[in-house]
Amino acid sequence: MSHTSTADAPTAGEPIAASAAQRLASLVGRHRDWLTPVLIFLGIRALSVTTLAYFADVRGGTVRGHLSDWDGKWMLAIAQYGYNRVPYSQVDARGLRDDNTPYAFFPGYPMLVGLVDKLPGFSTYGAAMTVNLVAGSLGAVGAARLGALCAARMAARARRRPGWFTDSMPFSARVSTWLTARTDADPVDPRRVGLILVVLFSAAPMGVVLSMAYTEALFCALTVWALVAVMERRWLLAGLTAMGAGLTRPTSVVIVGVVMLAALVAVREGPRVWAALALSPLGYLGYLAVVWHHTGSPTGWFTIQTRGWDTRFDFGSATKEFVRYALTSSAEVAVVASAWIIIASVALVAVAVWERMPWPVLLYGTLLVASIIASSGLMMSRPRLLLPAFVLLIPAAIALARSRLSTQIWVLASVIALSCWFGAHMLTVYPHAI
Known about the structure:
mainly alpha; 19 helices
């Protein structure tokens, strides 16, 4: 009688396991343009929240309390009660409150949270965190695509006139040969640029706000996809995302204007361009009209914002004074770091202009930075408000993509570590961060 060795005989589970592994690999391969950015975003957010939990444990407090602090309380209250029933414990920056005060906050985020809150098993806080995770993940995918699109177009232009950062021999190589040894024969990989931009977006100095009950995650997702849509001439998507951004926060006027201008430039491309023109301003203007109806004044929203939070256009006078004070007189880390973030944002605009980024992305980033720097208000909120200008980091992402892998790893790891620390410090140590 012949015997077959059990060690050599294939088991029934082996083909099944191999088939499952192949299917998984195939699935990942087909969806890597979505899956990889989402995993990067969620991983960095997990590190950020873990760091915050440690700081909260050391200093006393809870992660939930910090992630729903300041304006987050307003967002959750509007989501739970609606504008007309927000508890009077919620007050403006002066500690005051009237029936108009809740209307300072645009409805896109709290209304979306309120809809999710109505689903079984959700609390208002849980709904807010879910919206942030989903919106932030979509924003990460959009950032990866936008970074790749810009890298490809900028590389084509660099062949005609190289820039300092986007040249095939990057600025960093001209300054110091330790950064890279790559040559003209080794072009930048647009997909890698996109993924690096995802890291820089997720690990922005105040990236922790992407995990808070704030509008940043939703606003960044809508604006980055609006820019992707403009770059890809997908006009209906551009109009809808700009309209959504207009419902989310007041600085949406920048992306609305960019989409409308791009549509006007391409007005001969067909009826969808006209749809983008019509849809883009509806969210922003529609909410201003709602506040007009509520207050009886066409400038009702601006009055509420100025009276409650002292936000007005002052040509940068308040920002200039804040930066001067921070760099010459302040001993607080948060204040000094915020001033340098403002300065760095201006420098990024200059680099983006020099590197000839695609004009819709450049115009959006430039106008967003200008609108924030040229306004008065709570200066310590500037690192948060500047987060949606992360698209200006595309030249930096290109420079990193051209460097050695080891350089990419230690630079991005340092950025992530600093972001985790800074966010936790701002929420738990500094008393008036955002």
